[in-house]
Design a protein that fits this description.
The chain is of the alpha+beta class. The chain is built from nine helices and eleven strands.
């Protein structure tokens, strides 16, 4: 019979030794790793995920025993103003730093909740400058710094930033909105139809690659009236800064735009004619 893995022991001040609960060891290891390598606090919910066979209440009970037992004195508990409990190791994080980090955690949660709700329910971007509206106790600069810092945390990997054509920064959640869609929304927010059309055409020419049918811009998302489209295109094709944008008209009259940065004229013409006429003739 193989020997069982020995249970770690800790030596007390009176030289007595106490066998440590393996669950306590696992919890302490995670807390110390987060404190040392990531310099962050560990929420109770994260510890519960270590033990899927246990309820959160059971994990909390073990935490209480761990902290009160005094056998792992570096493990400290901190309850934030919103009632969320965090743990950390004072070997790697000072109590003062822990308090600052708990404030950051609270702020991150508020930001993430707002951004995810905007992306999922309102299908809109969250302007970085608007964070102070729901963070009244945090300065605008500090709120923006919190938002940028949280994107480096694995728990908030869905929170992303997109910069509009005028330099305005927005946040969105990739869990509910694609980066491409967020980019389109940022262009629309700038209320510059030329930039919206041109950058969308360039992106489709680059990424797919394919020309863009102008009827795409009649969708409500783009906020461009159909009657505006022809004069917009005429003006756009004359502008020097948009000289890579060209128009292709299929034999059935359908109008497309493409960027010669990514597509040659022959490619664009062939693709448009096939899409509009050839595909239907060759099912």
């Amino acid at each position: 019979m193989e020997n069982a893995t020995p249970i770690p022991e800790v030596t007390l001040e009176n030289d007595a030794t106490v066998a440590l609960d393996p669950i306590h060891i696992a919890i302490a290891d995670r807390i110390r790793a987060n404190s040392e390598s990531a310099a962050r606090l560990t929420p109770v919910e994260e510890l519960a995920a270590l033990f899927p066979e246990m309820t959160t209440e059971q994990v909390v009970a073990h935490l209480g025993d761990l902290v009160q037992g005094g056998n792992l004195p570096d493990v400290q508990v901190l309850v934030a103003a919103n009632g969320t409990a965090y743990l950390y190791s004072n070997l790697h994080i000072t109590p003062e730093a822990a308090n600052e980090k708990s404030s950051a955690e609270e702020t991150w949660l508020k930001i993430a909740d707002q951004v995810r709700a905007d992306s999922e329910k309102s299908i809109c971007l969250t302007p970085l400058k608007s964070l102070v509206e729901f963070l009244p106790d945090v300065s605008a600069e500090r709120a923006e710094n919190y938002a940028l810092a949280m994107m480096d945390d694995a728990r908030y990997q869905d929170i992303r930033q997109v910069i509009g054509p005028t330099g305005i920064a927005y946040l969105f959640s990739e869990a509910y909105m694609t980066a491409n869609y967020a980019t389109i929304l940022a262009r629309i927010e700038a209320k510059d139809p030329f930039t919206t059309i041109v950058e969308t055409v360039r992106e489709e020419s680059r990424a797919y690659p394919r020309p863009t049918k102008v009827t795409l811009f009649f969708e409500p998302l783009f906020q461009i009236e159909q009657c505006q489209m022809e004069p917009l295109i005429e003006t756009m094709l004359r502008r020097e800064d948009y000289r890579d944008i060209h128009q292709v008209v299929a034999s059935n009259g359908a109008v497309y735009l493409y960027s010669d940065r990514y597509l040659k004229v022959g490619q664009a013409e062939y693709w448009v004619e096939w899409e509009e006429v050839g595909r239907a003739q060759n099912p």
